[in-house]
Amino acid sequence: xxxxxxxxxxxxxxxxxxxxxxxxxxxxxxxxxxxxxxxxxxxxxxxxxxxxxxxxxxxxxxxxxxxxxxxxxxxxxxxxxxxxxxxxxxxxxxxxxxxxxxxxxxxxxxxx
Length: 112
What we know:
The chain is built from three helices and five strands; from the N terminus they run E-E-H-E-H-E-E-H. The protein is an alpha+beta fold. The chain has a five-stranded mixed β-sheet with strand order 1-2-3-5-4, covered by helices on one side. Strand 2, helix 1 and strand 3 form a beta-alpha-beta unit.
């Protein structure tokens, strides 16, 4: 188990619901950013997903910098909505942009 209070360790938390997996938290320490470590972690994690997972979703924080959304866009994620309603967590109050990456179309859509 990774201690989320240890700011020197990268981590990715997710949960699955049906054919969708949500990335709930993703963190790369500032000292390790810019070395493609985030990309490597996400790509390796994505390859380890069960075969029935068709969609990955996340909520990227809206910040003064577009970096979070740009990072996910480079990994194939697309915007689904921007929400003006803040998300409340034990850490902060933040606005977010919902993004998703479709790994495979549903079987019904493929048959058409």
